[in-house]
Amino acid sequence: MSLSQGQVQGSCTQKPIPQHLPLNRPRPNLDSLPAEILGQIASEVRPATELAELRLINRHVSKSFTYEWAKRTFEQVETDLSSKSLERLDIISTNPDFAVHVKHIKVAWHQSEEIDVDRGQVFGSRLRWRRDSSGGLVFPQPTAQRWEDVFARFTNCVSFSIERPFDSQGYADLDGEYWEPRGLLLMDLHMFMMNMFSSGRVVVEKYEVDWRTDKSGYDDAEPFDINAPGVNTAHLRNPSFAAAWGNIRSLDLHLGDVTPGGGQYIVELLNLAPKLESLTLDIEESEDGKEAAVILESLGSADCPFQLKSLRVEEARLAGSEDDLHMALARHRSTLTSMELVSIHLGADGIRSLFDFFFFYKLPVLSEFLLNNVQDWEEVGSSREPRLLIFPQLHTELSGHRLFEQNLDDHSYVDPCRMFYYFGPKGSEALTFLSREYHFGASGSV
């Protein structure tokens, strides 16, 4: 069919093409972007040092980029409690753009030329720390008050930790010449933090002490000694401390060597922590040590004031105290989602009794567990032969979630069969399976 004159099948219009574009048209740049877009850009810039440079472009850019830079730079601050560190943290704490981002304070030390390493003076250098006649720190004192003022300005900080750098005992140099310590010892650091919490000006929800002796390189590294001269436990009876400590939710104690009485002290700390959810208990003690058992016994008590969601027990010597471990797990089984037993030493047939417990006591909400280097021993004549829990060639599917051993590389000194890790929704069933495997399968103790 042809179109008659005047009929139009369709219409098409085309805008005229401009002869030229204006040469002075503004080009997009950082200055023209709104603060929201600049904030998104800043969140993608890596590393934080690049942000530090970009924030110097101009005031408009600096405002958006400074927020992201400060957030990453000051989320965790470290201090060795020295005069130089006090000056630095004082500047950070009095700058509202910086202080608001501090979430964790780590008391640690990094080697500097100002410190005589051989003499162990590493913490609190170039500040005057008052001590009483027994050698203990005196509270209150001006130096501690200055630090308290700084810590209190970090109003969003609720997490604190102390890390052992190496031997900080400081009573003798490498030539064996004794001297009076001028800096702070590890127990001083702990007492300093306890006094800080007792002020009522600092809130704590997470506290970690990492004093593992493998960090020190010294055989005589300072222990966690609650009976050391000058150590004062008055904070345990301070209502302000109890109020602050009552907010704690996570407690990680990697204590290295713990002397007698240390376990009971930790029990008293635990009794003041009704909101505690996560506990790491890492104690290196002698064969006759009972400090870990004392703590586990309190965890299994009906009077325990909290319900744990996560429990890690490491390096504990529990020969003769296996029931304390069982009762602690039973006490918290309704809430326990994560359990780790690492390098624990059980008594005769301790592994069998542990799997008997797992078989009869279910952990209904368990979703993650680790068994690594679990040992017991058996009587062989008049001697005790140590045995190691192993799971050789165990690769089994459990309702679609892999139950597996975590092999280590061939160069490791650790046997590749002695670490077993599970993550999934049926941890209790996995433990029951392991119990059957241990009693009736190919796994066992060697």
TrEMBL record:
InterPro entries given in the database record: LRR_dom_sf (IPR032675)
Disordered: region residues: 1-28
Organism (species): Aspergillus mulundensis
Protein name in the entry: Uncharacterized protein
Biased segments, Polar residues type: 1-16
